[in-house]
Amino acid sequence: MLQIRNVHFLPDGRSVVDTVGGKRFRVLQRGMKDGYCTADIEYLEDIKVTDEEELKKLRELHNFVYNQACSWFQNLRNKFRTQILQHFGPMPGREENIQAMPNGPAWCWWLLAVLPVDPRYQLSVLSMMSLKDRLIKIQHILTYFSRDQSK
User: Fold this and answer.
1) Which terminus of the chain is less hemmed in, N or C, by CB atoms within 10 Å?
2) What is each CA distance from 50 to 55, 59, 134, in whole angstroms?
3) Could you tell me which of 126, 111, 141, 131 has the C-alpha nearest to residue 60?
4) Does residue 151 contact residue 81 with C-beta atoms inside 8 Å?
5) Residue 149: is its pLDDT beyond 70?
6) Which pTM does this prediction carry?
7) Highest mean pLDDT among 33-47, 53-67, 110-124
């Protein structure tokens, strides 16, 4: 689900809509009403980790991947980094409580938006309801791109 930040109407009737992601959902059933596409949906939220030892490991993984993401971004060519900053804004900071938001840390979503990955792969990561699994996938992507940067 998207939140509209700005709309610019063009003379030919088209419009440019600036949006930011709000809530994740899964389409259960598609339909049509009055010429508009409709759908029954189910909202997605991350499954919370309650075991203290697992939560400690999750925080360690989170901090490692966050640092890896920062390093990848800082090592981009200035041209690419500037374009990303102009379009998406700066990478959100690390959050103290990584489970406070129903969809996990904001920086993960920002990073998934800027990483040059196939949209189908991106969708598979977006639909994950486990922060641990999502962080592992992001870690794999960053490791792959970091190897490319060092060549």
Assistant:
1) C
2) 7, 12, 17
3) 131
4) no
5) no
6) 0.81
7) 53-67
CA dihedral 63, 110, 50, 60 (to 10 degrees): -10
Residue 127 CA to residue 11 CA, distance in Å, equals 37
Tokens of 126: 């977006």
Burial annotation 103-138 (CB, 10 A radius, 16+ → b, else e): bbbebbbbbbebbebeeeebeebbebeebbebbebb
Token pair of 83, please? 């374009």
Closest CA to 18 of 26, 28, 8: 8
Contact 77/148 with Cβ under 8 angstroms?
Answer: no
Query: Residues 122, 134: contact at Cβ < 8 Å?
Result: no
Query: Mean of the per-residue pLDDT values for the chain?
Result: 90
d(CA 13, CA 137): 41
Residue 96 CA to residue 44 CA, distance in Å, equals: 22
